[in-house]
Amino acid sequence: MPTTSPLQIYCKNIDSYIDIEGGETLMEIFERISDRMPGLNPVCALVNFKNEGLSYPVYSSKHVEFLDYKSPSGGRTYVRSLCMMLYRAVTKLYPGVKLKIEHSLSRGYFCRLEGLPEGVSVDDSLVEDIKREMLSLVERRLPFESHEVLTSHAVEIFEKQHLFDKSGLLRTIRTLYSTYYTLDGVADYYYGCLAPHTGLLGVFNLIVYHDGMLLTAPDPADPSVAVTPLPQPKMYHAFTDYLRFNNIVGVTNVGELNSAVAKGDSAMLINVSEALHDKRISTIADMITERFRKGGAKVVLIAGPSSSGKTTFTKRLAIHLMTNLINPRMISLDDYFVDREHTPRDPDGEFDYESLYALDIEAFNSDLNTLINGGEVMLPYYNFETGTRQYKGNKISLGNNSVLLIEGIHGLNPELTDKIAEDMKFKIYVSALTTINLDNHNWIPTTDNRLLRRIIRDYKYRGASAVDTIKRWPSVRRGEEKWIFPYQENADATFNSSLLFELAVLRDKGEKILAQVPHDIPEYGEAHRLRHFLSYFTPIDENYIPSTSLIREFLGGSSFHY
Predict the structure, then answer these.
(1) Separation in Å, CA 486 to CA 110, 421, 494, 517
(2) pTM of the entire structure?
(3) CA nearest 164: which of 436, 437, 439?
(4) Alpha carbon 270 to chain centroid distance?
(5) Residue 359, pLDDT above cutoff 90
(6) Closest by alpha carbon to 441, among 76, 77, 166?
(7) What are the Cα distances from residue 197, in Å, to 142, 189, 461?
(8) What average pLDDT does the structure give for the chain?
């Protein structure tokens, strides 16, 4: 129980109230009570469930939880801080060279260097020099200092450093004040807090990766070492392909997107982005058709993580196949769920619908073989309300000119279709590989894009609140890491379902739903973070979006039946 002290915090780490002096920073408070939390090296804290840096001064009673990099919020803080340390190292060794941290890939963060001196390239020697400079910053334990100033003054600071991507972003978000950070004489901007000092960032790696570098953080399985990258050449090329498109359109970051919206170019951006989707789907349809005409590709497996847009992609692919004079028949793997009482459970004791064994694999393969061999099957229907698989007389068979489109998260897992000959399968991986960045040092995680899609869709169509979806998301992510991502490189084709403009369209609906999350529950922190993220986007009216757009699967108003 609290004492009669006029000012206290409740520290969740030790389940105790702590007397404080008004104005103490979180770091000062932690240092006073650190002996009660042995082994904890915090990089940030949750204050009333919101993520704050340890320089945050406390003037009133708060609920505080100190976090290290093993927590989701702490992990993001750690990586952001690594990025600023990388930026400082690059500017010291190569003044005038532009660092672009483009996206997460291969269990790390892919970076490019633009404007290197003539004759200098990204090789092992250059990357080792940068890494050595970063380690020297770690040894010096330099502080990341935060500064809250008028946004106009922050813009001036970034323009002096030729960080026009950051000044452009700040000009378009229209806030009076902005917070930026300095490290060893250079300024930078991040949309979340940084660690107290560089001394906490000793575990990382930097290696040559394709035509750039890969920055990696501590391995969750062994935080004493940096994570080992996984080769992902297909994902790299999928990202790179869309980045070229962004450069041609002239919209590579949110500042440029906001400026285009302000100039009235929303319709153009939407039309061009939708045309790119259509072209990519048409190309994949042609690949399937060519293989089908040679006697293969009877079964098209379409996989991807939650809220990647697999269903709409499948429906649009079917249309393109029909224009190629092929008759597509569609099956959803969700209809082969086992009855709920037999569903595996995750470590939290919740039903694990992401598990491969949530499916009746034997029944699925039996039906698949019957169809491929010219027979007829009665398709099941899974009733999510009762949690049972039912049959309603829906019979299908494949003609001589038919392909079977099978959509579900496990499509690329070899165990799902191990009884089907490989030449009969064509595998497609679908995911929202977000390629627009906030600025050159702040990429947009693909998981945030998908989570926002799911929050909006589940609220509209499944009666789920944002709290429900946010609470369920860690389990979904664990399932993806185990059952989906390891197989994405098995794909014959990769489709990027993200749209250049979509987060601007999702902004208003997303903010309204997230605003309903109560302030006194842990899920508020994630809701607040997502609302802050959405605030960077100038909204685009969803009425511009065509009814066939993939984003309609989440917004509503689609001409497809789901």
Answers:
(1) 19, 21, 14, 33
(2) 0.94
(3) 439
(4) 21
(5) yes
(6) 166
(7) 5, 16, 45
(8) 95
